[in-house]
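Researcher: We're teaching a course module on how sequence relates to structure. For the next exercise, students receive a sequence and then see the predicted structure as tokens, so they can try to spot secondary structure elements on their own. Here is the exercise chain.
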Amino acid sequence: MGALLAAFIALFATSLLFAPKAKAQSEDPIMAAFLFNFACYVEWPKNAFDRSDSPVEICLLGSGDFSDVVTRVVSEKRVGNRSAAVRSIAKLELTSGCHILFSGHDLDTAHDDAVASLRGQSVFSVSDREEFATAGGISNFIGSESRIRFEINADAAKAAGLKVSSRLLRLAKVVR
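Model: And here is the predicted structure for the students to work with:
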């Protein structure tokens, strides 16, 4: 776990140091790495997985080419004793089995509708749309001084039955 934290912090620090260059190329690989690292610092209830060896599913909704980037970044990586899998979905109704759900800025669904559709599910919801976490989503990426940062709504995570590591919360801007 210590090695994962060190890798996450190194990735986070690198994104801060080289964000202007990364932004010129693309923010997608950085956001994809964050999605994977979120999985490493979130604990789901046991009933969120069908079997003890079920993968952690990172689902992408309305994300276009981002799916390919996330697949490349996550390919062959593990979250503890589980593999990580990436799945693109076309509608919010198809989130069954998702552990992390990324809804892109190109999604036409309102924040409230996205949040309401996940109520009662143990899904770590993430978006790159402004105010997603304050609207009841769990996390969103925010631009700050040409850097990628993230917010986490700890209350929303708790309501979803998720335990977010204090190590991850220290790196986030915590919102309510």
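Model: If you want an answer key for the exercise: Confidence is low (pLDDT under 50) at residues 4-25. The first helix runs from residue 2 to 17.
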